């Protein structure tokens, strides 16, 4: 299959999607992490939170603040975040190193509590991965990369029904991309097929 015309070949000779060149941090994230499968609860909870905070902002902004988010939310330890109090929310609203949005901060705590509740059922990982589609996009151009799907809409609905907040179809599709449930690397990217779940 032909390569995407939107690919950019870096100085290292590797072809990547344009957004991967925004900063060194973005390039490293694209090359090592984005699109790799994540199954453990804490890893999925972190990405669920980060996608929620990203709503309306650039991913670069979130990535630059990722270590600050990890400090603020206790390493995204689900049990610890679930125990956070209104006083913790007030403290975090004064923390300039993160995104100071009260609804998003509260959503992280709400989602931690919902994740704990899921443990007596199928658990966060099994729930999220049950929405893996049968096929993945094969985008030849950036315009062909979806922003949502039937599965991401269904996942968002299901999570909301289980008590989760700030989990819309677009942010859930971004989550699916981030954890390799779908592969939206442009055709010809050196990372296409990196998850091992989909053919190159």
TrEMBL record:
GO terms for biological process: base-excision repair. Keywords: Metal-binding, Zinc. The keyword Lyase does not apply. The keyword Endoplasmic reticulum does not apply. This is DNA-3-methyladenine glycosylase I. GO terms for molecular function: DNA-3-methyladenine glycosylase activity; metal ion binding. Pfam families: Adenine_glyco (PF03352). It comes from Corynebacterium tapiri.
